[in-house]
Specification:
By secondary structure, the chain is mainly alpha-helical. It contains 7 helices and 2 strands, in the order ααααααββα. It folds into 2 domains: 1-35; 38-146, no CATH class. The structure holds 2-acetamido-2-deoxy-beta-D-glucopyranose (3 copies).
């Protein structure tokens, strides 16, 4: 009786798992279809934007900091765009149809960055390093506190 109950429970969990996996799979297929959409220019422009952000370490770091979907997911997306861009960049017909998005987006990314924008995110904070006399005071204080602990130790 006991084992039957356990078996039923295990079976239920397995079925639940299967249906969960199925749901996730459907989502993935949908996403793929959406990103390789019908508009080749949109695809080229998005790929160029992601590849430019992915190649420049400054943009990439800012993108990771502002994005909230997770670094692993972002890294995969940016790396995929970097791998994909060369074939689009050299496609003469595509560049004639859409304009050279590689050049356009490179310039746009640089302009955006001066306004604190990286890709879809705004509010990039410039890295501010605190330097000046205050650092000497703080370091002296730290040395004093830890030094005192050391010297007064029995
Ligand atoms: C588009 O611009 C990129 C970067 O300047 C360049 O490498 C590429 O050859 C250009 N593509 C075409 C088809 O002219
Ligand atoms: C990355 O972008 C910054 C800001 O636009 C620029 O100053 C820098 O030269 C770029 N670095 C590379 C490797 O392209
Ligand atoms: C520049 O900023 C605009 C507005 O935020 C954004 O739609 C666009 O994708 C950005 N371009 C790049 C290359 O990051």
């Amino acid at each position: 009786m006991h084992s039957t109950l356990l078996t039923t429970l295990a079976l239920c969990l397995t079925l639940f798992n299967l249906s969960l996996a199925k749901t996730i799979n459907t989502g993935a297929i949908l996403t793929t279809r959406q990103t390789t959409g019908a508009d080749p220019c949109l695809d080229y422009s998005i790929t160029a934007t992601h590849a430019i952000i992915g190649t420049n370490t400054t943009y990439r770091a800012a993108y990771y900091a502002l994005s909230n979907v997770g670094t692993l997911y972002d890294a995969r997306m940016l790396d995929a765009a970097i791998a994909k861009l060369p074939s689009l960049k050299t496609d003469v017909a595509l560049n004639a149809q859409c304009g050279n998005q590689t050049e356009i987006k490179t310039a746009e990314a640089a302009t955006n960055f001066t306004m604190g924008i990286v890709g879809p995110f705004s509010g990039v904070q410039p890295l501010v390093l605190n330097a000046g006399p205050i650092v000497v005071v703080v370091v002296a204080l730290i040395c004093g506190i830890f030094g005192a602990t050391w010297m007064l130790m029995p």
